[in-house]
Predict the structure.
Amino acid sequence: MSSQLTLPTGLPPQTQTTLRDFVTRAQESFGANLLSAVLFGSAAEARLRQHSDVNLILVLKSFSPEQAAQLSPALTLARAAIDLQVMFLAEAEIPAAFECFAQKFADIVRRHFVVFGPDPFAGATINREDEIRRTRQVLLNLTMRLRERFTLLSANPGLLQPAITDSIGPIRTCAAALHEIEGNSANSPKEAFAATIASLNTPEWNYLPEYFSAVREQGLPASPAPELVIAHLLALSTTLRQRLESHL
């Protein structure tokens, strides 16, 4: 069955091999119940970095615990090898997922790659108001979590790195949602984030796009201090949320 699989060009060899093995095993486990296998995020664009996880959706007619149990050893191996994260989504659940997780699925619709089967998101559109409200919720949740992490760890700044690293994906994705909501062409979250920062006319935040890339590729830079970065992320999250609310 592996001959039916297609992968983005440019993925690391281990990622290609692991994905082929896993999706082939998924085909064997789920049989005709498996409709599609779809990569999303940086793997779909073959832009994986050293510490990136690999995100995959298996679209099913229905979720069978018995069939899923057969796939467990393959997922365990793939998780260890390439940090494979799998979303098991029933075909009938797609409309509800679009509504409940509009911000996330707007990003998936923008950048996904079909490994096997038909494209379950072909021609899909996300309700604009759902996307605004969900993106607003993500930003508010991020703000509250950052405040708590900062208060807990500010006496030990060296422990703040995970809080910064964990914020990069959500903030970039929210920036991409805002970028598109405001009528701009769909960009990758990284590009949309840089464009959004440039549009905010707040010079003290201009370092953030390159800083985020450095964190993802090399670890936390020596400067600015983590406490200052988190202060900027808190202010930025609030600004993005307020800008989104202006479109409601």
Observations:
- The chain has two domains: 2-116, 128-245.
- The chain has a mean pLDDT of 93.
